[in-house]
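Record pair follows.
FIRST:
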Amino acid sequence: MQHKLYIHNTLNRQKELFEPLNEPFVGMYVCGPTVYGDPHLGHARPSITFDILFRWLRYSGYKVRYVRNITDVGHLEHDADEGEDKIAKKARLEQIEPMEVVQYYTIRYHNAMNALNVLPPSIEPRASGHILEQMEYVQKIIDNGFAYESEGSVYFDVEKYNQKHHYGILSGRNIEEILENTRSLDGQSEKRRSVDFALWKKASPEHIMRWQSKWSDGFPGWHLECSAMGQKYLGERFDIHGGGMDLIFPHHECEIAQSVASLGHSTVRYWMHNNMITINGQKMGKSLGNFITLDEFFTGSHSLLTEAYSPMTIRFFILQAHYRSTLDFSNEALMASQKGFLRLVEAYERLQKIVPSKETSVEIKDWNTLCMDAMNDDLNTPIVISHLFDAAKTINTVYDGKGTLSETDLNMFKAVFRTYMIDILGLKTEQGDSKYLDSYKKAIDLILTLRLEAKQNKNWALSDKIRDELASYGFVVKDTKDGFEWSL
């Protein structure tokens, strides 16, 4: 059932027909989080984007090995080569072991991803668990003449590499110009050029996380972990490498250089990057006061939020924009997403209650093909959602008694919603504990039954009060010939 999937390849900046190297096996590597703080909206977008790709590839008949790493060493404060390790700094300030920091925030990250219905990867390696592989990778680059040792650290020689290969192939940067502008820095640093990047860093005396190597007691550079672990679990050539567009340079550019310097060729065939999330038009950041953690979304505890939002509302909000488009957050946009998601949930629930007729009297479309075509067009989830809304209008028409569906067409609707809304987009129709939800629904039904009795007794004041109070809490009550309906 494999489809003709077209994906945008950052490497050549155009859509390409996806053709795996070893069909039907697909190797996919995605840069995971650096676990030194609570997961936030910026973590959610790449996780959901590549969760969609993972789901679609498997639905399309491929066997997928999905590797998503955990960065728990080497990600420094100021840039990839300078400053204090973020995890080590937090451990020092809190007077705990670095791996306590790693474990605490890894668990919180996993809990958040589970709430967002992000499927776990096939393999989730940690950088600290692959130090030997990274040392071996460094040595091979040195042996091939593209790295040099300096005061116990090892740096990648970008100028020498660029003489034989193209450093800047992914980001499109003019490295020759950068090299020319950095020649005046000679002698001012361990590095020959400021553009050179660390493969291995000698640890300062106060640095907590360190390992013994032939060069020094130190730790691997940030860029190295993905190259080493990608090759270990997916081989010297694999299909897809993904992450946020902020990783294109320098992280992914350096990965390409490392693999070519080590192996003589690049390991990745398709590079995929999701765009950033902005908040009210500004880039999200702690310094701007607009940095919102996922837990703050789920509890409504941030000053920019007027209420708590469910994980599925957050997921739906992210999927309403194409993964390569900038996604601008505002409380108003999230409220609109919440209403849109609930409309789909309501249509799905109504679909289960429709009784089939002998024939179909409403106009229908081949929504399965329409949704499939949208997914095959570079994972166009906004178009899939628009098709589901279109189908929901027909469902509501039939539910309201203004049309009929045959059993065949009714089953088609159910299959489309089950496949695309639930299995592919990963939108769960219920949140939280099912027993709690059942009790909640029964309580609302009881209140509206009492209102119905008040109406029958011509107690209009009480009937109106119940309706108006529920409306103030966000409930929409609709009187029907059989009693009532309600939605939130």
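SECOND:
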Amino acid sequence: MYQIIDGKKISQEIKDELKDKVTALKAEGKSICLAVIQVGSDPASSVYVGNKKKACAYIGIESLAYELPEETTQEELLDLVRKLNEDDKINGILVQLPLPKQIDEKKVIQAIAPEKDVDGFNEKNVGALCVGSKGYVSCTPLGIIQLLKRSGVEISGKHCVVIGRSNIVGKPMSLLLLRENGTVTICHSRTQNIKEITKQADILIVAVGKPKFIDESYVKEGAAVIDVGIHRNENNKLCGDVDFEKVAPHTSAITPVPGGVGPMTIAMLMYNCVSSVE
């Protein structure tokens, strides 16, 4: 029988641990403040921002919301980021993506001071991860490591296959697995014989961006499968990159969608905010 990895439960455990830490920091006179910037009113972004504010309130972190109109210029946004960089009261800065087309996302991300980049997207933080130095790590991959560890899935010495090479998930995920002594293979849209490779995986992490792309023919019997994708199917129900019903019986552990990786991203954002003070 396979284990369903419960991201809601594990993220709640992490938030409760962080809540205790924040209480202890406040007793020492240390407060934490996260600035969240949203440009425009993309419905999905608004939901994410709302969830981040709720998590801050639960843990005891102050959150400042900057809701800017859709037509905000790049220079106006960069000016706000510079001001927040210089404000000693602010520990973390988060710019909700995607941004409107007139704004260069890369420039904005690189403008955030690395020590306040709690999303872990700034090139200096990514470089720190590459060489094993201290820095913030992208929240989704960091959350996946916690899901595996807290569910008793051993990473060290295992063959870990990551499908996807994005800067936000695929690349940092592979580096984190390497840091945990996994043997890592990255697959992507140009990979040949992809099934032959994925069927060797003890741990398969799927961030391909295609609904139910992975069926049982991609999965080694008894593998642990982590599904990073989130989509709506033809019946408007949420589903992932993995066809859960077909794949689950062949795994030792698997994340559901929803309720798997999703809740962990915000929990690890909170973790990064707290570690900004520590």
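COMMENT: Residues 139-262 form a domain with the Rossmann fold fold (CATH 3.40.50.720).
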